[in-house]
Amino acid sequence: MVAYFHFPNQTLAKDLYSVLTKNLIQFSVYLLFFPITAYAKGYDFIETFLEQSFAYTVVLSDSDVFTVGIKDFNPNELFNTDNPDLGTEDSLANRKKYAISTLPMSFQLNNEEDRNKHQLFFRLSGLGTEEKVRWGDETVEDDFQQVIADFYTAYRYEYKFDDHWRITPGFGVHLMRYENTMDYNSATGKSYAPIFDGLLFNTTAWSNIYEPHLKLTYSKNENWGKWQYSAAGHYFYGYGWGEANEGEIGNSEGWYIVNSATIVYNIEQIGRSIQSVYSTVRRVDVGSDVSEPLGTSFYYEATVGWLMTPPFEISFVDNIGLGLTFNYGSAFKGGSLVLFFNQD
After folding, report:
1. Quick one: which of 85, 186, 104 has its CA closest to 140?
2. How far apart, in whole angstroms, are the C-alpha atoms of residue 70 and residue 5?
3. Angle at the Cα of 126 (from 96 to 117), degrees rounded to 5?
4. Closest CA to 28 of 227, 173, 192
5. What is the mean pLDDT of residues 83-89?
């Protein structure tokens, strides 16, 4: 889990202008025949935009699916390569436009030595973006900001088949709030303000999303540390409401499957503090409302770093550390410097 990190990506608002311009004719024709205040229902493209915004926030707030960091870079410069799937200058610039913060917390409902365990998991996260919107040949840009807050809670049951195999079914619920603001600086933007305000811009929306999930894990302790393999599947479906798009917020839906292999190599132990080298490789497959914003149906991620358990017992801290992560093949391709907190 990552307690706080800068999150940049290019998908939340990168197509905002193109989406709007493709639908301006629809708005213009509509306004010829109906007053501005006579909307009976929302527009499909706004509904899709909101559905996707909620959907990829579900995925990107899960640090077992996406690892991001406090400082971004282009891995091609580090490795002296020229692979566009590993990162580009444009993707690096886009990554720096967005930020996300998460605060995860879990509580065991039984004793640590129990074979099978019940767990409550909570996570509060927020995704914020800042974008510039330019209308056609306008030289003046409008300022567009948006924030998606997500309160997530889940119940999980861990069943151990033996000392190596365990299965963990769970069920989670998201309560999410979307809000954006548009500062109309351009003449074109100001002319469209009466149309878009409350419908797409300067508006709010909510979504309640349900997320059943299942994880299968094989782990083995060695004299040098431990290694494990896990496969997890998540499906989610939600219901939206709110001011935006005349209340037509839609039903965010998506799924993702994560296959990952992890190695933790212990270097030394000083007192109760263990110094370790941590590395993991994962493949993430995504679908439904998630694949288009991420720009792919699957991607790969590799992370390597250093972990340290606290020198004295802290009930809510398992470990902390520092590392590098590399994303390959998605709209978030690139590298980041990562802070680890309670990393599995």
Report:
1. 186
2. 5
3. 120
4. 192
5. 83
Q: What is the pLDDT of residues 181-226, one digit of tens each?
A: 999 999 988 998 998 899 999 999 999 999 999 999 999 999 999 9
CA angle, corner 127, sides to 123 and 128, nearest 5? 150
The answer to whether the beta carbons of residues 76 and 326 sit under 8 Å apart is: no
Using the predicted structure, report yes or no on whether residue 5 has a pLDDT greater than 70.
Answer: no
In whole angstroms, what is the distance from residue 201 CA to residue 182 CA?
6
Q: What is the pLDDT confidence band of residue 316, given thresholds at 50, 70 and 90?
A: low
3-class DSSP string for 171-235: EEEEEEEEEEEEECCCHHHHHHHHHHECCCECEEEEEEEEEEEEEEEEEEEECCEEEEEEEEEEE
E strand or H helix at 94: helix 89-95
Give the fold, CATH level 3, of 39-341. Lipocalin (2.40.128)
Total Cβ atoms within 10 A of residue 136: 9
Write out the two tokens for 205. Answer: 């929306």
Please give the torsion angle defined by the CA atoms of residues 121, 126, 127 and 131, in that order, rounded to the nearest 10 degrees. 180
Domain locations in the chain?
Answer: 39-341
In the predicted model, what is the mean pLDDT of the chain? Answer: 84
Query: Above 80 in pLDDT, residue 133?
Result: yes
Instruction: Single out the residue of 331, 261, 271 nearest to residue 296, CA to CA.
Output: 331
DSSP state of 140: S
Among 34-43, 69-78, 173-182, the minimum mean pLDDT is found in 34-43
Instruction: Specify the pLDDT at position 145.
Output: 93
Helix (H, G, I), strand (E, B) or coil at 330: coil
Task: Decide if 129 contacts 178 (C-beta within 8 A).
Answer: no
Residue 40 pLDDT = 47
